[in-house]
Amino acid sequence: MDKSASILSTALKLFVQYGFHGTPTSKIAVEAGVSNGTLFHYFKTKDELVVTLYNQTKEELNTHLFEKIDQGETFKDKFRNMFVYSLKWGVAHPEEFFFLQQFHFSPHLALVPAEDIARHSQKHTQLLEGAVQAGIFKYLPTELIATLAWSQINGMYEFLVKCDLCSDKKEQIINDAFDLTWLMLVNPAKL
Amino acid sequence: MDKSASILSTALKLFVQYGFHGTPTSKIAVEAGVSNGTLFHYFKTKDELVVTLYNQTKEELNTHLFEKIDQGETFKDKFRNMFVYSLKWGVAHPEEFFFLQQFHFSPHLALVPAEDIARHSQKHTQLLEGAVQAGIFKYLPTELIATLAWSQINGMYEFLVKCDLCSDKKEQIINDAFDLTWLMLVNPAKL
DNA sequence: ATATAAACTGACTAATCACTCTACAAATGT
DNA sequence: ACATTTGTAGAGTGATTAGTCAGTTTATAT
Prior knowledge:
Two copies of one chain form a homodimer.
Chain A: H1 3-18, H2 25-32, H3 36-42, H4 46-71, H5 75-92, H6 94-104, H7 114-133, H8 142-162, H9 167-185
Helix pairs in contact in A: 1-2, 1-4, 1-6, 4-5, 5-6, 5-8, 5-9, 7-8, 8-9
Chain A binds a DNA duplex (30 and 30 nucleotides) through residues 3, 24-26, 34-38, 40-42, 44-46.
């Protein structure tokens, strides 16, 4: 395994467990099996390591998601895939998903340029924007719809982690939750 | 102003801006206008300060909320008050609200005993539990309903902060969002 | 008035941390 | 074969930090 990747994956584990400032770079280096100097060879500063890890993790989730979204035929299918596979990815990669949440609600978010954040959510936003324009969703600000959908996913994730269900139950309840979200956002005139 | 309270309110501001570990106790003391020793006279450790601040802030929100919930006559009124006044309180106390979110998604949450967390949400949970039993809400785990409702509030808060609307628009969109949430959770047989 | 306790101070400390520096090894190009 | 870049190591450094301590002021009780 490539040392840079080893540093990133070790950092992820430790950040989730001890927080950003609670994890010294020295500990990351030791647990990753590299020297202190090597860590700073790949990442100029600790902040750069944190931000790189965020961008990389976000991109992993997005790549997975875009693939699934593209598999949907109707808009509802695409939206369902976005919802369902976000959660499935989260359940399959709990550390990564938690890290994204942790980063999002920390002052480190300010280190990511606004344009990068916008780019991360560009494709999702376009998808939703189209549905608002087409009258599929209620006539509300796209930003609001995006935020509500995302927070539903976050909330569901928290529930899935808190209540350790068998994977059948998980699947079932993810689908139920999608139906609720769809019901909430869809334009009743189109039903 | 009492020194202990001054320390807490200064810590809140700095934690929100720089994060927990990014804020030295020395800085808190200076900005609060007390000596370093005084800070440790009131709070044995920095972690104790953080946790105390969390418990206090959570309690402030809860006290406010319980009062508003009790003013509702029907269950829908109570639930609406919970939803609407959570957001209004958040808009009026942005630092406090952000701090609660920041703490919730940080490893510091582990420092709060599970029973304390349960106690914090006990009354809300009871309210929702009753509505599930009475068939007002869909027949879903109360925990799920609570988590979904709470994440709707979180998401709405993020939206309100991101889009700086005038207070009339804010009021309007909070009410709209409540209607969406209600629609999502309510048992259609009871409509 | 005096004793006792509580509040308060700020210099101090031991530990820790992000990051640097020098040296060496491996790969790569010519 | 040689030169140059790139990767790696780990001891070292200066700054910073949570927490202490010895001593002073203020409040309270008798």
